[in-house]
Amino acid sequence: MEGAGPPANGAAANGAAEKVHKFPCRQCGADLVFSAADQNLRCQYCGYVSQIPRSKEAIVEYEYNEAFAPARQKGWGTERRSVKCENCGATSSEDPAITATKCAFCGSPKVIEQTAAADVVRPESMVPFQIDKQKARDGFRRWLSSLWFRPSNLTKESSLASLSGVYIPYWTFDAYTNSYWEADAGYYYYTTESYTEGGHRKTRQVRHVRWEHAEGAHDEFFDDELVCASTGLPEGHVRVIQPFDTTKLVPYEAGFLSGWKAESYAVELKVAWQRAKSLIADKIRSACSAKVPGDTQRNLHVETAYSGITYKHVLLPIWVAAFQYGPKTYRVVINGQTGRVSGSAPYSWLKIAAAVVTALIVLAIVAKLAG
Q1: How many helices (H) and strands (E) does the chain have?
Q2: How many of the other CB atoms lie within 10 Å of CB of 52?
Q3: pLDDT (tens digit, 9 = 90+) per residue, 151-194?
C-alpha cells in the first residue's frame, strides 16, 4: 500500500499535513505504513522500520445475551477517512492521505466521502496481513492459470485493474452444544428373484431395506465460528477463502491499519448469531447423520440446546481484486493470511461444448462395447 510522500525537509509542510501523519518516520518524516513482509511499520522512502507495540492483554470473549452492549472503546484509534460506495453500499475507512477514486469492493467510481462515524465499535483483535501485494499478485496469476474451461488467452490477455488490501469485519462465536437425534436406520437385505429373459429362466438378487428406529446424543464445542460482517464482498467467495487461523489473533493496534483500508461492520450481532447458528446446525446435522447405524437412513430429526455462547468482533485480512478481460470486469478475493483465492472468471463455451461432445462419444463407445 502507498501512503503520502515524504514532506519537505523531513518534516510536515503545514498544519494539515501534521494532522494526517499519525505514524511519522523518525528519519524522514514520511508516513509509516504497515508492512505485511516485516509485520511492523515501514517507511517506503528511507526504509526505516518501527515496531508496532503488541499488547499482552488477553483477547476477551464476550458473553452473548442478544444485546450488543460493548462498554468498550469506539472509533479506530487514529484519524481515518470514511468512504461510501453508492453502487454496492460498502463503507470503508482509510488513511486521510489516500485518495479513493474507486470502490475497493466492486470497482465502481461512484464513491463519496462522508464523515467518519465516531461511534463505530472498535475491533478488539485482528489478524494482520501476512501476504504482501506482490505475493497477492502472484497468487492471483496462479489461480487464473489453474482454472478449467477458460479462454486459452485468459492469463495473457487479462489485466489486473485493481488490488486493495482491506481489513474485513467478522464476528466469531463460541458455543457448547448438546443435541438429541432420532432417525429411521435402514439395513439392506437381499432376496433371490426369478425372471425370464430371451426365453431363458434366470435369477437375480433384489435389495430390500429393513427400517428400525434409532436415536442418540451428540455433544460438541464450536470455537470461533466465523461470520463475515461485510456487505461489500460476495458471501460465496468469502466462504471459499476460509479458514483463517484465529489462533493468530492479536489485540487491535491502530498501527496495523496504517496505509490500509478497513471496513466497518454492517451485519449486526443478532443477525450474525443467527447465521452462525445455521452454520453450526448444519455441521451438527452432518455429525448426527454419521452416527445413525445401518446402511441408509431417513427422517433424521435433530434438536440442539446451546449454552456458553460468546463472541468477538475482529478484523481479518483480505485482498480484493478486479481484473479486466475484454469489456467485462471480474472480481477476486484473496485470503491475506494464507493466500487462498476465490473469484469469478469467464468461461470458454467452445471448450465446454467440446468436452460435452467428447463425453457423449465415450459413453456411446462404452455402451456399444457393453452391448
Answers
A1: 6, 15
A2: 19
A3: 777 777 667 778 889 999 999 999 999 999 999 999 999 999 99
pLDDT in tens, 109-124: 666 666 556 666 778 8
Task: Indicate if the pLDDT at residue 225 is higher than 80.
Answer: yes
C-alpha cell at 344: 469469478
Q: 115 or 318: which carries more pLDDT confidence?
A: 318
CA 108 to each of CA 160, 165, 275: distance values in angstroms, whole numbers, following the listed order: 15, 17, 28
162 and 291 both lie in a single domain = yes
**Interatomic CA distance for residues 73 and 122, integer angstroms:** 6
Regarding whether 27 and 101 lie in a shared domain, the answer is no
Query: Do residues 176 and 35 share a domain?
Result: no
Q: Which long-range contacts (CB under 8 A, 24 or more apart) does 48-53 make?
A: 50/23, 50/25, 50/26, 52/253, 52/255, 52/256, 53/253, 53/255
- Distance, in Å, from the CA atom of 282 to the CA atom of 289, rounded to the nearest integer, reads 11
- 8 A C-beta contact, residue 20 and residue 50: no
Report the alpha-carbon distance of residue 175 to residue 29 in Å, rounded.
48
